[in-house]
Design a protein that fits this description.
By secondary structure, the protein is of the alpha+beta class. It contains 22 helices and 21 strands. Helices cover about 40% and strands about 15% of the residues. The chain is globular.
């Protein structure tokens, strides 16, 4: 029972001030005695007001009570029922199990994203409907990896046709942008922030294309969850909060030099006091909801040939960008034929260039002719995988570009004779091939499967964290910085030109066996993506790991030259053996830069087995 003084009468007080001060002191005293929640304090307020009525109306009582609570909040060390803990600290390793599902499964890097997809499946939607709903929500739920100004790629398995479809929804550079313009501004390479690296975003057009060809639900229904979360808010997940704090520093640095292009982004994604949203904070974005409604009403046409396009172009012109109306009006996503590579009886499928999924296929083609050690946790395993990856990257970083501009054919890069020649370069010593220095970026990956056997592997990305740091006022649209992967070398197939697609790092994967679907898989993380996919696939096929174990296994990453980063879980002994082979090895504790993946495999009885990424807030939602 809360402390209350004996019943006092108004006649005991000679002024309102005396009454006010007495209520204030009672509240102070009560809160000093016991730790009670705000709800209990409100109940106490009602009891106190009834027992101790104010002389003239309730305003005087309310002010006094509020002052007492404010005093308590400022002086109390801990006045909450919630235990004190750090959401970024985990002293003991966790273990996830494989998740089995009969009717459907959705996987992605944040819990709410997977739940959005599962709700669609439960309401009668198919795997494509679920993927589109998730893709529309993920820019809100994980803005540190993608936005309404992202690109996307998808592989779609339609069970009744026994066919895999590929969609390339990557954007193109503005026609007004050129390499000469970039060099004239003092850059020796394309920057990662500002208007220069922005390209016409392809993701909304990709959603509409998937929905039109394979969907069963209207976009208004599929985008409803994203609209609801934007208006009502959601709690920021742990790893999203970590990346939010990290990447906002990058935007702050460029904003200090030229505030105009970044002001609306800052207003949209930072708190009023200028601090980033952290784990457990509630993030609301009403402008996002308005844009999603416009996209649903127009089948995303407003983005390319309507009001949303006009807003993007207007903001570009007002703040130093390069977009014009025709850049958007002329844009359409492309349906493409997946490219494949056989690996030990399985068929690995990827999107063809301008993406670098071919890097995965080339590396697996080289490993096909090598014998891997009996146990995965062996320095010889990591050495051979990294050597194959380095050789594949040396080629793809040189030859992969917008396919309209590629001088080297995909068939030439995947030729068995060529891969055999590259494989012959792998010895027991570290190579140093000529290639760009890979680094990790900001992307989301999701995969879905339904009761009919349809499956989707979809990846969506800004490139670097929050992307270019530019958002369009009043829309919730934040723009990607995919143009940062263009080359300024006129001899390169990937040379920057207006209307051209850049070299792209995001790659959804799909696995087949004897013409039947095994399932979708992917590992996001810019130049880590091909490396992560090769490691996941070899863990699955060569070492019979279940999907969760394959994602849990320690990872290694080539970052340029002979430099490797390896997770501490692999062990110091393996790192030392790799150093003896000539590698420069750094052991890392921060696993967020080592890629984040999801897997769904279809079992022989039709049940799905799924795994999710332990390096993020990964979630499997099953039915």
């Amino acid at each position: 029972m809360p402390f209350l003084p004996g019943r006092c009468q108004r006649r005991h007080f000679i002024s309102d001030w005396l009454y006010y001060n007495t209520v204030f002191q009672i509240v102070k005293l009560e809160n000093a005695k016991c730790s009670i929640s705000y709800r209990v304090n409100i109940q106490f307020s009602a009891l106190l007001a009834q027992t101790f009525p104010p002389p003239r109306g309730t305003a005087l009582f309310s002010c006094a009570f509020a002052r007492g609570l404010l005093y308590w909040e400022k002086t109390a060390k801990v006045r909450t029922i919630m235990p004190n803990f750090d959401p970024l600290t985990y002293r003991y390793p966790s273990r996830r199990n494989v998740v089995y599902a009969k009717n459907g499964v959705c996987c992605t890097s944040v819990p709410l994203g997977a739940q959005v997809g599962l709700d669609v499946l439960k309401n009668g939607g198919n795997a494509v409907d679920a993927a589109v709903a998730m893709a529309g929500a993920m820019p809100l739920l994980e803005p540190t990896g993608n936005g309404l100004g992202s690109d996307c790629f998808a592989l779609v398995w339609i069970e009744k046709e026994k066919k895999l479809y590929g969609l390339n929804a990557s954007g193109v550079a503005p026609m007004a942008l050129s390499a000469d313009e970039v060099r004239a501004k003092g850059f020796s390479e394309v920057p990662e922030e500002g208007w220069i690296p922005t390209m016409v975003p392809g993701a909304p057009a990709g959603w509409a294309a998937l929905n039109a060809r394979f969907g069963t639900k209207p976009l208004s229904e599929l985008f409803a969850p994203a609209i609801s979360y934007a208006e009502n808010g959601y709690a920021v997940p742990v790893n999203v909060g970590k990346l939010w704090a990290r990447d906002s520093k990058r935007i702050a640095r460029v904003m200090a030099q030229d505030p105009a292009p970044y002001e609306y982004w800052w207003k949209s994604f930072m708190k009023p006091d200028g601090s980033p949203y952290r784990a457990g904070d509630v993030f609301r974005f009403p402008a996002y909801a308005g844009t999603m409604r416009a996209l649903a009403e127009t089948d995303c046409e407003s983005y390319y040939r309507g009001e949303l396009m006009e807003r993007i172009v207007a903001h570009s012109r007002a703040t130093g960008g390069y977009f014009c109306e025709d850049d958007f009006k002329n844009y359409h996503p492309e349906w493409v034929e997946p490219i494949t590579q056989d690996y030990r009886g399985y068929t690995v499928c990827e999107i063809p260039p301008n993406g670098h999924g071919i890097t995965v296929l080339m590396a697996l083609g080289m490993l096909n002719g090598l014998t891997l050690p009996e146990q995965r946790e062996d320095a010889d395993y990591y050495h051979k995988v990294m050597e194959a990856i380095k050789l594949a990257f040396a080629d793809t970083k040189t030859y992969v570009a917008d396919p309209r501009y590629m001088k080297t054919k995909v068939s030439e890069l995947l030729s068995p004779d060529y891969l055999a020649a590259r494989r012959a370069l792998i010895t027991d010593k570290a190579l140093e091939p000529k290639a760009g220095d890979p680094h990790c970026g900001g992307t989301i990956y999701l995969c879905t499967a339904d009761a009919e056997g349809n499956m989707v592997s979809l990846i969506q990305s800004n490139y670097c964290g929050f992307g270019a740091g530019i958002a369009i006022p009043g829309t919730g649209i934040s723009l990607q910085d995919r143009g940062a992967n263009f080359s300024l070398d006129p001899k390169s197939d990937n040379y920057l030109e207006g209307g051209k697609k850049s070299y792209h790092t995001i790659i959804p994967g799909f696995l087949l066996k004897d013409g039947e679907a095994v399932g979708p898989f992917g590992v996001m993380g810019a130049f880590m993506q091909p490396q992560g996919q090769v490691e996941v696939l070899t863990s699955t096929i060569d070492y019979a790991m279940n999907p969760q174990e394959a994602l849990d296994a320690p990872r290694i990453q080539w970052i340029g030259g002979k430099k490797l980063q390896i997770e501490r879980e692999a062990g110091e002994a393996i790192a030392e053996q790799l150093r003896a082979m000539g590698h420069e090895v750094e052991i890392v504790d921060d696993r967020t830069a080592m890629g984040r993946g999801e897997i769904i495999w279809k079992c022989e009885n039709g049940v799905y087995a799924a795994g999710t990424e332990p390096r993020c807030d990964g979630t499997v939602a099953s039915w």
